[in-house]
Structure to design on (171 residues):
């Protein structure tokens, strides 16, 4: 939070669909849904959760945002364990869904996002390619700032569970 600039992309998790090899654009895939942490410019600004979907192909539409949601109500835990749960359903504006919750250590589950919208390219959907749930990806300026401050950028993962359907209620 002491970084004076804006944090507009600090990726925590992403879902990608396959690339269409007949179209230019991003080599990673045709579209993506990204869960991340953002911050407004200024020292001391709070970190907040961010979820969006973007077209990545063709090149002329790369980074074209399909939808975006911000959650500034649920704090981003720093230096504390928490459970993050997600549900992803490929689909169009009426069948696609992304649901994300967080349960801080010794806290209650709070839903960060429950979005019913495109989770695939709206013009030419491709099959779902992958889910990157171990991801810490951001700009070199943020990494350089943290390195100079002597603070690591790290995520620790434990007790991974994979469900074929919506995450169950936790006791």
């Amino acid at each position: 939070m002491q970084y004076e600039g804006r944090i507009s992309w600090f990726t925590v998790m992403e879902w990608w669909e396959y690339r269409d090899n007949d179209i230019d654009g991003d080599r990673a895939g045709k579209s993506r849904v990204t869960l991340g942490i953002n911050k407004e410019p200024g020292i001391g600004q709070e970190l907040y959760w961010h979820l969006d979907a973007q077209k990545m192909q063709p090149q002329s539409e790369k980074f074209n945002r399909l939808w975006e949601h911000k959650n500034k109500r649920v704090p981003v835990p720093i230096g504390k364990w928490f459970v993050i749960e997600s549900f992803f359903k490929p689909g169009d504006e009426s069948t696609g869904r992304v649901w994300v919750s967080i349960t801080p250590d010794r806290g209650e589950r709070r839903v960060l996002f429950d979005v019913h919208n495109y989770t695939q390219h709206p013009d030419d959907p491709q099959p779902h390619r992958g889910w990157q749930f171990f991801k810490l990806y951001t700009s070199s300026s943020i990494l350089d700032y943290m390195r100079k401050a002597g603070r690591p950028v790290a995520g620790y993962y434990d007790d991974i569970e994979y469900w074929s359907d919506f995450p169950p209620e936790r006791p």
